[in-house]
Amino acid sequence: MKIFTIGFTKTDAQGFFGRLRRSGARMLADVRLNNVSQLAGFAKRDDLAWFARELADMDYRHLKELAPTKPMLDALKKEKGDWATYERAFLDLMAARRIERHDPAMLDGACLLCSEDTPHHCHRRLVAEYLQAHWPQVEIIHL
Fold this sequence. Notes:
Helix content: 40-55%
Radius of gyration: 14 Å
Number of helices: 6
Distance between the termini: 16 Å
């Protein structure tokens, strides 16, 4: 089983969709809390769904249950919070939501999308690693 991850900042549409197309991912799983007011025009919900289908031949789904809460994001971004504190709180949230109950087949070949350009300080990595710890034989590929 493969779970991909990708961020859209610090890239253009050509590079972003080229990486998606080459990856072989079958679904773009948007794990952002808010998917309509991002700065990158190609990463807004309706545009992204169209581009994913037309340019990368993949489905698009918004999986809000894999997103952090607004207070968590505010504490990290607006209040310049500590990543380690955010990480612990987010992992606790994933455990409370019991995201491992998702059907693994639904996310096999999915690419988790968030805004951060790298996975190091992004919740999409935490989601992928959480599922890897709960499901058998999950390979994570960061695009």
